[in-house]
């Protein structure tokens, strides 16, 4: 599964300050941190939190910065076998 620029943008734009980007059953989703403990997301791989993403790219990043982060995150997940 590829993490896209749109996935990174969705995480950044969500109003939930505790949101995280996860990979579950081959899908990339943005969820609230509390949902990670639910049965629906059991076994999900936490990719990055909104807070960590903001610390990396700021609150209003360029399209290039979003694309770069998507590539970095995708490579990290691929290395883990995701």
Provide a concise account of the structure shown.
This is Pyridine nucleotide-disulfide oxidoreductase. The protein has 82 residues and is α+β, with helices and mostly antiparallel strands. Helices cover 41% and strands 21% of the residues.
Characteristics:
single chain; 82 residues; three-stranded antiparallel sheet; 3 strands; globular
- Roughly what is the average pLDDT, rounded to an integer? 94
What's the arrangement of strands in the largest beta sheet? 2-1-3
Number of domains: 1
- Please give the alpha-carbon distance between the first and last residues: 7 Å
Q: Over the alpha carbons, how many angstroms does the gyration radius reach?
A: 12 Å
Count every beta strand, where a strand is a DSSP E run of 2 or more residues: 3
Strand content bin: 15-25%
Q: Helical content, roughly?
A: 40-55%
- Count of alpha and pi helical runs: 3
> What summary fits the major beta sheet?
3 strands, antiparallel
Write the H/E string, N to C: HEEEHH
Uncertain stretches of 5 or more adjacent residues: none
- Quaternary state of the chains: single chain
**Overall morphology:** globular
SS-based structural class?
A: alpha+beta
Organism: Mycolicibacterium holsaticum
Protein name: Pyridine nucleotide-disulfide oxidoreductase
